[in-house]
Amino acid sequence: MIIFRYFCREVLSTTFAVCVVLLLILISGRLVKYLAEVAASAMEPSVMLAALGYRIPGFLELTLPLAFFLGLLLSLGRLRVDNEISVLHACGVSEGKLLGYTLVIAGFLAIFVGYLSLVLSPAGMQRASVLAAAQSARGEMDDLVQKTFYPLRDQRGVIYAGEISSQKGFNDVFLVLPRQSGEGTRAIVVVAKTATQQRNEGGFDHYLSLKDGTRYEITPGRYDYQRTNFSEYGIRLAKKRRYKEDNETALIATRDLFDSQDPKQRIALQWRLSIPMMMFVVAFLAWPLSRTRPRQGRYARLLPAVLLYLTYLLGLNALRGSIESGSVPASVTLLPMHVIFLALAAILIVRGAGVRRNRIWRWWSTRPS
To answer: Distances in Å between the alpha carbon of 235 and those of 100, 196, 347, 369?
Structure first.
C-alpha cells in the first residue's frame, strides 16, 4: 500500500500540473473568442466569465486524457532514470503489478472523466446556450443610461435620454444620425418627447419608435436645413449579431442521446463514451513508451509519444466525421480505433518485455562461473 500511495502521488501530481497548463491554454483560446464576441456586441462583458465557467467541464474532459498520458510518461520516465523501478523490482514489485497500479489510477480518472463527459459537460453547454439565447434577445438600447450619450452600433449615431421609465421607455430623447449624400456628409438630428424600443415577430430586428418630436436634416457648415415635425417617427437599429455555441449536439443530455436514432446524435453518444475509454488506452500506450535506454533521459520519447497520441485523437475524429457524413456505416462505431491502439500498446509491451528477457539471458549466460 505504501508503494501504491507513492506511485499514485507521483503520477497524479504530474498529471495535475500538466492538466492545469493545458486547461489554461484552452481557456485563453476561448477567452479570445468571447472577447471578439463582446467587441462585435454579440455578448455582454458581464456574462462572458459565466459562459466561460460553464465550458470548463468540457475543457477538462479534453485535457485530462492527454494530461494523464503525459503525466505517466514523465513520472514513469523519472522513476526509470533514477533506477527506482529497478529497486522496486529487486523488492519483489513486478512490472505487472506496477501496470496494475497504473490501471487502477486510470480507472478512477475514467470515472471522473465519464462524469464530466456524460453529465457535467452537457449541462454546462446547455446553460451556456441559455446565456447565448438571452444575449441574442437583448436590444441595443437595453444598456442605455439616462443623461448619458450612448453610441449606437456600427457607428450609426449617438442617442441621449434625459429619463428612462420603468417600462424601458425613454423621455426627452436627443438622437444624431450621420448620413452620406452626394453633397457630402449630412446629419439627421431628432428631438422627441418619448421613445420606445420595439421588436419584430422574430425578436431579432429592433426598431426605435420616437413620438411627438422634430426631425432636422442639416449639413455641417451650412445655414440651410430641413425641419419636419412628427407625431411618430421610427428608425431601424443595427441588426444584432446572434451568438451561438459551436456544436449543437453537445447541448443534448446524454439520456436523450440513448433514445435518439439520428446518426449525428448516436455518434455524439459514442464520443462521450469514448473519452473514459481513452484513459485506459493511453495508460497501456504510456507504459512501453516510458522505457528509455541508459543516458537517454526521461524526455527522449516524449515527442514520439505526443505524435502517437495526436494520431490516435485525429483517427477518432476522422472516424467520427466519416460516420456523421455517412461514408462509414453507423454500425462501425468508434470502437475499432480504440482496439487498434490497444493492440499497438500490447505489441509494444510484449516487445519491451522480450527485449528485457533477452538482456537478462545474455547477462546470465556471460556471467563468470
So the answer is: 71, 11, 71, 102
CB neighbours of 227 closer than 8 A, spacing ≥ 6? Answer: 214, 215, 216
Average pLDDT, 10 consecutive residues per value, the chain (369 residues): 85 92 91 78 74 88 92 85 76 80 92 92 85 67 75 77 77 82 73 82 70 86 82 76 61 83 84 91 88 65 86 90 82 88 88 54 47
Instruction: Retrieve residue 148's grid coordinates.
Output: 448619458
Q: Which long-range contacts (CB under 8 A, 24 or more apart) does 245-253 make?
A: 245/125, 245/128, 245/129, 245/132, 247/125, 250/58, 250/121, 250/122, 250/125, 251/122, 251/125, 251/126, 251/129, 252/122, 253/122, 253/123, 253/126
User: What ranges do the domains of the chain cover?
Assistant: 2-137+245-366, 140-236
Q: Which residues contact 285 (CB under 8 A, 6 or more apart)?
A: 69, 305, 308, 309, 312, 341, 344, 345, 348
Cβ(289)–Cβ(348) below 8 Å? yes
| Concatenated DSSP letters of 159-226 | EEEEEE-TTSEEEEEEEEEEEEETTEEEEEEEEEEEEEEEE-SSS--EEEEEEEEEEEEE-TT-S-EE
15-36 b/e with 16+ CB inside 10 Å = b? beebbeebbeebeeebeeebee
- Pairwise CA distance, residues 207 & 244, whole Å: 23
